[in-house]
Write a sequence for this structure.
């Protein structure tokens, strides 16, 4: 269970940490705790899996990764674990989820990749499909980014 | 971006040191000073390559519920609908994609009840049906990208 201090820490570290020599000291001051206590608590949150990753969120488009399709695949239900696990193991796959099939969208495996060009994505997708032996798939390219932010937890408006 | 920037981005996406002088430690692995590390990061932040530096939380572990949603929005209504969606803290990603259902967004809320309420609220405000596709199984979330140009790469997922 998370205590109020943990939630207060999360409210701080889910924002930008300051680009100064001792960023955690500055945050600890704001929270009224010692730097050592903060570091221990963050490590605890990491170990327990509350923090999935500590580091930079990059704008992949700014890095030259301009193509980020959602590859949707139709996989027989009995093969979903095998195919999902296999695709998840590939380095270029950033997200892989099983989702419910809808009548207008009869696909159940949703895979995200990021690449520099659309052509590269088609090559990657074909390779992936061949690897797992799935013939029915589509690439939904993002044509425009309307919003991209980080989630903020434990705020008043929750 | 030079090679040091690229290496820095690669490092800073994952193992950010949780210690008193993290930038000194990162700099040491690259053979640059703490000051240079901070200056480079400030520049990458200004350029927009780094969106945020901090903790990425595990929404499930925090008890939050999330889903991926699709909507069919006529071209001329896109700015209006995007503006409505933009106001929600829990809507972190919103993309236009090349499909009949052209608007795809993610929604994270503190509970299932809250999720259903938000979806109903959004349908009422936008006037369009929302198709919610909550993950049935999570195979992977990675979200540290390969940095283009860091090493010679062949276009392959394998």
């Amino acid at each position: 269970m998370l205590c109020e201090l943990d939630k207060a820490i999360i409210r701080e570290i889910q924002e930008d940490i300051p680009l100064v020599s001792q960023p955690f000291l500055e945050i600890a001051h704001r929270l009224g705790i010692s730097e050592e206590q903060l570091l221990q608590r963050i490590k605890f949150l990491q170990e327990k899996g509350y923090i999935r990753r500590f580091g930079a969120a990059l704008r992949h488009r700014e890095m030259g990764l301009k193509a980020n399709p959602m590859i949707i695949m139709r996989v027989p239900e009995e093969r979903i674990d095998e195919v999902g696990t296999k695709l998840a193991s590939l380095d270029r796959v950033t997200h892989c989820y099983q989702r419910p099939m809808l009548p207008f969208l009869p696909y159940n495996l949703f895979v995200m990749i990021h690449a520099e060009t659309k052509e590269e994505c088609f090559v990657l997708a074909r390779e992936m499909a061949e690897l797992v032996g799935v013939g029915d798939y589509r690439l939904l390219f993002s044509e425009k980014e309307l919003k991209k932010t980080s989630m903020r937890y434990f705020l008043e408006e929750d | 971006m030079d090679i040091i920037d690229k290496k820095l981005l690669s490092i800073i996406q994952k193992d950010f040191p949780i210690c008193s002088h993290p930038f000194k430690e990162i700099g040491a692995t690259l053979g640059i000073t703490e000051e240079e590390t901070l200056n480079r990061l400030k520049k990458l932040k200004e350029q927009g390559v780094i969106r945020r530096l901090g903790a990425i939380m595990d929404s499930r572990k925090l008890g939050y519920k999330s889903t991926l949603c699709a909507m069919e929005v006529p071209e001329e209504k896109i700015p209006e609908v995007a503006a409505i969606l933009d106001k929600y803290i829990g809507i972190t990603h919103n993309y236009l994609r090349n499909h009949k259902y052209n608007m795809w967004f993610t929604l994270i809320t503190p509970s299932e009840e809250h999720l259903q309420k938000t979806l109903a609220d959004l349908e009422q405000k936008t006037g369009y049906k929302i198709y919610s596709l909550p993950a049935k199984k999570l195979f992977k979330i990675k979200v540290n990208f390969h940095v283009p140009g860091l090493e010679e790469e062949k276009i392959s997922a394998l």
Observations:
- The CA atoms of residues 28 and 34 of chain B lie 8 Å apart.
- The beta strands of chain B are 50-57, 65-71, 91-97, 103-109, 131-133, 137-141.
- Helices of chain B lie at 3-12, 22-30, 34-46, 78-86, 112-126.
